[in-house]
Amino acid sequence: MIGKIDKTSQLEMFRIPIKHFIKEGHELVLLSKKIDWDQLEESLDPFYCKDNGRPGIPIRTIAGIILLRRMFDGSDESVLGRWAENPYWQYFCGEVYFRHEPPLTGQS
Length: 108
Description:
- By secondary structure, the protein is mainly alpha-helical.
- It has one domain.
- It has helices at residues 7-12, 27-34, 37-44, 59-71, 76-81, 87-92.
């Protein structure tokens, strides 16, 4: 609308990226830097449909959640349930800003 200010975009400048309030030496931060996420995405991209149905979840997010499940011996539900409590998990999965809601639901 003309003359209407989009308050949402103005608030974005006050969001602080996760990397500014986590410790660089944390094991998940270090591990995330050792994984070649670009190569993983390139390898899995042919199996990923970007234009059919609802918007897709980034490959890094899905792969990161699977790795977290394995590393912490949890279920999809337990990882997603703890999502808002753990900025390191979010950073590991490629999030730039902290999210209060998980990137996907435990339901199919």
